[in-house]
Specification:
15 helices; 5-stranded mixed sheet; 21 strands; homodimer
């Protein structure tokens, strides 16, 4: 079978690369038939130049154009649902139902459509007008964006279809998608649909491009190239940090999502009040998708004592009884095993799992570890090793002071949850812990597990380092997510007819929200 | 005279450092009497720990507290105007009138008061509410902020009084100010007033702290310390890049403002129409404050031909006739001379200046250089060497194509200006150049010089690298400038009474703007 083509400058074309790779079916460890190219530098540079040309072409296009492209793309994805889910299942082991077909693909389509709506309503631009001195500002497109998608969301974070892609396009930027090597076939179909939608809506060549893999060296060259304006990266911490360093050195905004263990606090009143609900919540959240979520609850902090022991015991029973899910790849499997080894070596005890129940596929037994707070505090960094997958670490604490001390040792996380008694018995503890936890996490939850990321304007899927590289940005939720791929542009004394429509005195749609003299309004700005 | 004290954890105290330094009066090259300490690491760490304690103390304080502190501070500065301007004049050579007393100090006080108002109205928080799913988000304080002030604005960018300081405090963050070594005495008085205001308004110890100098190694240690949440730095590129690398490596947001040469385009119709106005605009802007502005017009691009020659000739005459201002320091003088040497060595011709007219003070003759576009394009990086001070480079171009080619070679800048004919004769050229220039600059001007940065919500004092480290942020203009020192915080299913007031259903002031279900409103949110 011929090596698959890359999408460069408006054309599917044979890669000039000589190296190739194949994806592996994690459910049987067999290679999948298609081969994909590793792009050489010349090809990457051609894509970067084409993206820059496309950026110039579309720079002053009305938002309607980007919205139409996104909507055409969303429809095409919808129409190919079955094909897309079939190949994604083969490449990732994630079940077609309900995960791929009923949950992730509709979410992905919804994200694209929300981004189209945000492009159209212009909310992300935050038009700001100071009429007295004819000074005006708004966010504008930043330029070519590269998106590196992760392994665990073949659609919703895909480099050519996910939230970063949709946000970048909504701001009017061309995107070069970099497929994740574990699901290149899925990405290929999505890119075909993106390309078809781009042609149908007359986007310029180079607006949507796809490569499958690069050498590590070319990856760093790519993110620091003069044509690159910004980068989105979700994935492994080591690779992400290398790309971040390369981009940071030349001042390119790079949004990385690197790791998160999502601490969950079970306060004593909540355990006493509703132990079974906590067990059910936690088990479902931790084992869903075999635990392969960036918001998976990987660390649970709870008081020591008989109630907690009973809770742990029931969770262990459920872990033992639950089917063992397939992991995304051999790499995920070996990383999970290595992380569990590291946490056990640091002193955690095994509650259940940590076996290899099925050598015919990538998997690891549902695993629960536990450690006392004293030990955790003595080696907090090691105990925060991310065990990406169906594993979690429980930390038993003597008192609320120890819970607070644990928070002080936490790295930045995407989320933090606190379960407390509904009648107020835990309120003192909550009031002590929540303000501390708040500064370590992007999203603070009450009585709820962190998995399940609503696509809403009020979402923050972000958090302090190393959860992400900057705690002021979210990867999910428009219009905020779009700001990542925008630059602030001020217009000083610019003649009125030369201003972008959103900054002219007349409200361009009669509905766009603008900040005029410190007040949000959908009205017109006064003439000077 | 005893070495001046540092302000750590609410106390003015003798530094434990053994090294000291003195400021120099640039008008006579004589050292000023006071000696200031270089703080050792133990002292810096004490400040960081104190800042962290202060951050925890004030975390849930109402905005009113920070506003009151800022306002008390502004009043104290106003009351000490004469003392502050006197010492700043001695340390910087900047004239008391009009610069220090009528321009910069009132601007600084205005910035602090605007920041207080922004803290109070809460606009920077962007409260966003999705009532149906009880998901809410807002910006919140990020934690301890370190501010490194530059040499050229002893008040408006001062580490303990300038825009970064005021923005960080408005968001509810403690600040450690790092004085610039060229005006430590000015900074000391400001810090005394800040401390007095902090005591008067009952801010905790460690909320406002001051150190004067650190070793380079301790500077990088400081910005990457676990207690540090964010950093503002305005100053020299080399130092800034070292600090940026250290902060980036550990994911601390660092906002650097490094260099900008602020290209100005004189289109042919504008020169023909109003040559004298252009001459006057440019000369005043380029020589104001001896050219020591980050928005100084250091690069002028204009068509070749007799009109431009006449314009250059008159500017040279004005440069020769104008008094030669005093430069801020020996470092500024030697850097300016070195930059002029580099630009001349690259092939620029001298139009006027580049002499040393007065050895008794730090200064350099008002200098104009020129080069043809072909030569500029062949070595564009060298010709963009920032000559910080009273110097500018003119580039003559054969046609608009060459102007466009120059823009393609430009580094990121804070500003870019285009002067064009008022009757539309330059409109084709403008329409070609403006979209290109737009992507290289934070603020695009028409028929106006870039010096003079209005403190307005619509200002963007920022721009693509290396003007700053991220093109999405501004250092001037509230509420946007405050976002730099904020983190995004989402609340998911959090019980209503535990939400910060700005996210509860009832509008906390009846006037706060909030984004509810995609609409900006000052009303209440519906109950779920």
């Amino acid at each position: 079978m011929a090596t698959q083509q890359v999408l460069i400058d408006g054309q599917w074309q044979a890669s000039k690369g000589t190296e190739t790779f194949q994806a592996t079916n994690p459910a049987n460890k067999q290679p999948l038939p298609e081969t994909f190219p590793v792009s050489p530098w010349s090809e990457i540079e051609a894509a970067l130049q084409a993206a820059e040309r496309a950026a110039r072409t579309v720079r002053n296009w009305p938002a309607e154009r980007f919205a139409k492209f996104l909507e055409a793309y969303a429809t095409k994805i919808e129409q190919r649902t079955d094909d897309i889910c079939r190949i994604a299942n083969l490449e990732t082991g994630l079940p077609v139902e309900p995960r791929l077909k009923t949950a992730e693909l509709p979410r992905t389509i919804n994200q694209i459509r929300q981004s189209a709506a945000a492009a159209r309503d212009g909310s992300w631009r935050v038009p700001t007008i100071d009429p007295k001195i004819n000074l005006r500002s708004c966010f504008g497109p930043i330029g070519p964006v590269i998106v590196f998608g992760p392994n665990n969301f073949p659609f919703a974070y895909n480099g050519i279809a996910g939230g970063d892609f949709a946000s970048a396009v909504a701001a009017g930027n061309p995107v070069i998608g970099k497929a994740h090597s574990s699901h290149p076939g899925t990405t290929k179909i999505l890119a075909e649909l993106a390309h078809a939608a781009a042609q149908e809506t007359e986007m310029p060549p180079g607006f949507v491009q796809l490569i499958y893999r690069t050498s590590h060296k070319d990856g760093t060259r790519m993110v620091s190239h003069h044509c690159t304006a910004a980068i989105g990266y979700t994935g492994a911490r080591t690779t992400g940090l290398v790309l971040k360093e390369a981009a940071d050195r030349v001042g390119k905004p790079i949004y990385v999502e690197l790791s998160s263990i999502n601490p969950v606090f079970f306060l004593s009143g909540a355990i006493a009040e509703r132990r079974q609900a906590l067990v059910d919540d936690f088990t479902a959240s931790c084992l869903m998708a075999t635990g392969q979520f960036c918001t998976n609850p990987g660390l649970v902090i709870l008081p020591e004592g008989p109630d907690s022991e009973a809770l742990i015991k029931v969770i262990a029973e459920k872990f033992n009884a639950a089917p063992v899910g397939t992991l995304l790849s051999g790499g995920v499997e070996s990383n999970l095993r290595a992380a569990i080894v590291a946490i056990r070596q640091a002193g955690a005890d095994l509650v259940c799992g940590d076996t290899s129940p099925d050598a015919s596929r990538f998997c690891h037994a549902n695993t629960l570890l536990r450690v006392k707070a004293d030990a955790f505090l003595a080696d907090a960094e090691k105990f925060q090793t991310e065990a990406f997958g169906n594993s979690s670490l429980f930390v038993t604490t003597k008192n609320v002071d120890q819970m607070a001390a644990i928070i002080d040792k936490l790295e930045g996380n995407l989320t933090g949850s606190i379960y407390s008694h509904t009648g107020g018995q835990d309120d003192d503890a909550y009031d002590r812990l929540a303000p501390l936890l708040r500064q370590h996490v992007g999203r603070l939850l009450n009585d709820k597990m962190p998995t399940g990321v609503a696509v809403s304007a009020a979402m923050n899927h972000g958090g302090p380092f190393p959860a992400t590289g900057h705690p002021g940005f979210t990867a999910v939720g428009v219009p905020a997510a779009i700001h990542r791929f925008a630059m602030l542009q001020s217009y000083d004394n610019v003649r009125h007819h030369r201003l972008p429509p959103c900054l002219q005195n007349q409200n361009p749609t009669g509905k766009q929200w603008r900040l005029i003299d410190g007040q949000w309004t959908q009205g017109d700005a006064p003439s000077a």
